[in-house]
Amino acid sequence: MASSMDALFDQYLAKKKLSSYEREVITRSKKNGKVSAEDYEAAHAKEVSCMASKGWKMLEKKLPSGIYANNGTDPVPHSDAEVNKMANANKSCSVDSSDIEILYETQQTNPDLLSDTYEATVTCLQRSKVVDKSYTAKKLKDALEGGGDLRKKLPFDASTDAAQNCLAGNGMSIDI
To answer: pTM for the complete prediction?
Structure first.
C-alpha cells in the first residue's frame, strides 16, 4: 500500500475528492503518526447517524481492536430497489468517514501495509494466533471464492472476535 503510515497519509491527502472534515482528520493523523481512536469513533458515529436519518440502522459489533464489524442493516433490504436505496444512502453517508475508517482499520489490522487483502488478512490471523504459519493467502482466497459452507472450508471459527477483527479490518465481510 505504502512504505509507511506517513506515506499512506500522504496518498490520501493527495486525493482531490476528500471532504474538508476528512482532510482535517488525516492531516492531524499524519502529524500524530496514527489515526486516533477518538477520530475513528467520531467519523464512524457521523456515518451511523446519517444512515439512521435515512432509515437504516447499522447492525455492528465493536471488536477489541476498536474497529466495527458490519453485520448488516435493519431493515434488511430485500428487493433490488431497496438494495439500491441502501447503497445510495451508504455512499452519501460515508463521504466524511470512509477514508478515516479505512486508515484506522489498516493501522489496526495491517501494520505491514500489505496491498494484497488476502495476504494482509492471513498475516493478521497468524499474528492473532487464529491460524498457524502454514495457512496461506491462497487457501483463504480459495475458501472464500469457492462457494459452499464456509464453516466447513475454513480451518478457524470466523465468528470469533479475533477472526472478525482480521476479516473486517481488511474489508472482508462474510456470512457465518
So the answer is: 0.90
